[in-house]
Amino acid sequence: MEVTSVSDSSSSLAVNNGGLAAVTETTSMSSGYDYDVFLSFRGPDTRFGITDSLRRHLIEAGIHTFIDSEDLRVGEKFGPKLLEAIRHSKIAIPIFSKDYALSKWCLNELVEMMECRKTRRQMVMPIFHHVTPSEVRYQTGSYGKAFLSHEEKFDGNDISKWKAALKDVTSLMGWVNRGDGLLVRTVVRKVIDELKTAYLLVTNCLVGVESHVKKINTRMFCDPEDVRILGIHGMGGVGKTTLAKVIYNRFSYRFENCCFLSNVRETSQKKGIEYLQNQLLSDILKINLPNVINVDDGIKTIKERLCGKKVLVLLDDVNEKSHLDELMGSPVCFGLGSRIIITSRNKDVFNVPEACCPYELTGMDFRQSLQLFCKHAFGRDHPLDEHANFSNEVVKITGGLPLALKVIGSLLSHKSKDHWGDIMKKFEKVPREEVKRVLKISYDALDEWQKQIFLDMACLFIGFDKRVVFHIWNDSNLFPGEGLQALQQMSLIKIGKDNRLWMHNQLRDFGRDIVHQECDMQLERQTILWNPKEASKVVIGKKGTKYTKALCLEFDHHLQQSFTNEELGRLSNLRYLEMRPVLDNWPTSGFPTNSFSTNSPILSELRWLSWHNFPPVLTLTTFSMMNMVILDLSWSKFSESWDGWSHIKMARKLKVLNLTGCAQMHKTPDLSSNINLEQLILESCGSLTQIDKSIGQLTQLVLLNLKFCRKLCKLPEEMANLESLEELLIDCTSIREVPGLLVNNCSSIGNLTSLSRLPLENVAVSQPPLEIRVLIKLEQLSLSGCKLLKKIPDSICNLESLVMLNLSHTHIVELPKSLGNLKNLKILRMRGSSIRSIPSAIGMLEKLKEIDAEFCQRLEGTIPEDIGRLSSLEILNFSNTRICNIPKLPESLLSLHIGTDSMKTLPDLSNLINLTELNLEISQVPNFCLAEEDSTFVDTTELEWDPSPRWIGNLCNLESLKLSCDTITVLHGDIGLLSELKRLELLCFNLQILPSLPSSLLCLLIKSSRSLETSIDLSNFEELSELRIYSSAITDVHGLEGLKNLQILDLRALNTHERLLNLSNLKKLNELQLGHCLNLIDLQSIQSLGNLRILKLIGILQLDKLPNLSNLKKLTELHLLQCHSLTEIQSFEGLEKLIVLKLGELPLLERLPDLSNLKKLTKLDLQQCHNLVKIQGRLDSLEDLCIYGCNSLVDLPDPSSFKNLKSLQLHDCEMLAMDQAFFLAISSILKMEE
């Protein structure tokens, strides 16, 4: 054994002082890479010699090794799996043997290794096995002969790349093996030494990390010449540290100076920030300096010694912005190309003006959550069948929080299955201690006011409108403006675009547990009773006390008897009362005589009363209005003459009055006394025709909601006084005279200068008012559905605050020429409008994020190149238009939909590296009809034929792809590199060849003609949950039996064999549709699909007998259509859960089995079963019966079995005789359609 000379100083990676002491249990995912080592070799030469020995020793050392199995070499193109394996390996070891160069695969692997060495600083360690480096470098001997052969088969470009790679690899440090048995141990020791680098230990149960890494890569590492800060924020336990470590590991090869400071918050509390300053200096300078004396000394030393150095620093769990100043100073002091990664629960930490890139990490989706849970609970990616339902419940409870999934999964893995139920019941109510400990860190950082807001949200207000809840917190002096901001920054809550409050399930349960613990689990001392059952116990048991501040009750007949003045009087400090009606038992009378006396009102501290469908037998005077802030009496049945209106006048502090759905109210009451009212909600008051003039006195009114008041035609002139009004919601009303809108005698909308939101959807206006130009604060203007609207005046472009403009479903032909003045516009929607062109001024809208022009069927011509200047654009939709050309689009795009029949060539989308969703539909031909057998070639002479979009491989972040284009005959092989792709729809009529597709697919739809190759291999798609293939060319579907996660299978127009493929392994399949599979006869394998819920057999022409379906216990829908040879359905035995039964065009079917077993059948549809004579059995649950064209049918079941029937349709059933008794029996429960 000897070592070749090298001059490759860059091939070894920098070693972090905090690195691994030894690598004995390295795993692929412990550093965010897939593999530690990639072995490249020529199988016949070394597979059973040095390669096998080296592989075994590497694995024994705990080094995760990828073996280049020749089984992966399918077809002529370089396999995407091999490419990914090389790219995601830390070290590559090519073993050069005598015939290595004979394999084009080995040579392609070598080219990729050397490329990764340049771009990813991958370590390459060559071994020369019974060949010399000189033979390899100069291609002499066997290598020369190999290249003589290659030059006859391959083009010069490939030859040049191979030769260059061979030359470069021989300059690296490696080994020449002449039979010395010590070589393998030497190589393994070298690998172990090289793995002692800056890599940080990460769990080997990583799930869903790669997509985050790719997104961050495009934002953080695209420009190597600047200094950038990545701020990963999110709630505790969401995986911030794990993601940060993976990114650190993935990109540390680019930096000589790396440092990881763990647990900054905890370490600074225990050891002081000076300890971390010393570690930062020591790790980067790689020398031991004298310890800094104090924080200021540390700041000065860091600035002096690290200034100008290119560094990679990871600061984990930073909770104070001051820590950044003390550890980094000004980030621009570091050298160009430096990257700082910070994790924190507090988003405010990242409020650093210099090049900060915040990245919010949220919970996992259901699929990822299930996979992570199963890794910890079962040591596999998916649950066993017997654990599937239980696993799904766990995932729902944990809400996608990785920490909770890990904790509960690890716990269950060590517990008997008999105890799982009890563990989960406890976990449903209270998070595990490990989870609580992490969540408590964020809670403890809040002040007392913020804690109270957090607890109120956890117990009461999730899903509520922030603008409503704000008032009760403000009245309680909790400083909600500051408090909500702090809770958001700490990732404890979110506020959606619709102002709805949101909190993670685990945080909700954590907060509720705090409330439980504060009262020592005694309900009568609990401040917030959110559970109606527990609240009822307190009221019915007469245990209400002064401690109770919030109460949620279900008002049933049990509570009715206890709901008295006396009991409510015990709740002297009650501030929030929510009464949820149980409508089935709603009382109209029967209240005890002593329920409510006429004495002075009770509950003087009450701030919020929510009582939907307020009982008409009660009086509102029972409740004190003195401190009432929010009053919600939605869906109540009182009119404008109700006695309660006079009592509401006493609510001088009232901020919100919600009267949604009060259908008997024709006119609003006099509200002149409620001068502090800010929100008046009258949505869906179907009888409302008049707004009282007193509304003009509500000078603090901010929101007026009149949506769906369809009888309301006019607003009073007094509305001109509402100078504080910000939102006027008049969608779907009959309003014709909104002040100023229909230039009559009114022009007072100009006074409403505070308006920020004005939706005029489906309102009969022919043009916006001229006065609209003075609404300088208007942010949202929707004219959607205004059918009379044909033109937008230029004055609308004076609305410089406008953020959203919706012109959808109008007859507007063109956009204003001065559109570019709307500098703050982010959303422009015009779907279904008559717009004919996009003006070049579109390029001036620098903040625009969304353009939606779907179904603009008059939109044609070329999209202006100026659209490429929109650097913030994320969503672009040109589906169902007639555009003929797409220019270069901005890289910021995340979603792109293009659909046109006027485009002659595919657009170039090669620069859209951030795109996650692409729908490309370009066609001049009608949709492929599945029932037709005609295979006539489609005439697409108007199109320029393009075999494939060659740029497809560039779209590395693509998650959803739909290609519907008749010019595409061959898909480019790079589509297999789209490792994030989850959904793929190929609707390409002339597609001939299908390349290897990415194994990440969850949904696959292929629709093609007879041009497509005759077989398809699905064995690579282990995660696939939905498969739809519509193609008359395909005869063989391989690997279907291995799709154990498949839930939906839809096969149509396939020229399959007589026997259906074996489906017995598809235990999760719940929907199966087979259509127009002409040769199919035997469907016996359907019997094994015990989880099937929907079965549709359409056009199975050779099927004469339906298989036994008795094992399909979960089946809810059965459709048998166009099965022209079907003569017999044996039985519906076992189908107790069947809800829908549709039988159509079964000309040979004469009888149905007894339907009495179908206890849940609600819909029976029989069409054109010409020989069917009789329907037998009781149909007690049936609601909808439709019989059409069954002209041999003579008898129906006894009418007494139709007791739940709601609809009966009988058409063209000439033989069916129904006497008068039948009609009398059912006439009371349905209206018959003849």
Automatic annotation (TrEMBL):
Statement: the UniProt record of this protein carries the keyword Translocase: no
InterPro entries (alphabetical): Apaf_helical, Disease_R_plants, Leu-rich_rpt, LRR_dom_sf, LRR_R13L4/SHOC2-like, NB-ARC, P-loop_NTPase, TIR_dom
MF terms in GO: ADP binding
Coiled-coil portions: none
Pfam families with a match to the protein in the record: LRR_14, NB-ARC, TIR, WHD_ROQ1
Keyword set, alphabetical order: Leucine-rich repeat, NAD, Plant defense, Repeat
Keyword Magnesium applies: no
Domain TIR positions: 33-195
GO biological process: defense response; response to other organism; signal transduction
PANTHER family the record matches: DISEASE RESISTANCE PROTEIN (TIR-NBS CLASS)-RELATED, LEUCINE-RICH REPEAT-CONTAINING PROTEIN
Protein name listed in UniProt: TIR domain-containing protein
Organism phylogeny: Eukaryota, Viridiplantae, Streptophyta, Embryophyta, Tracheophyta
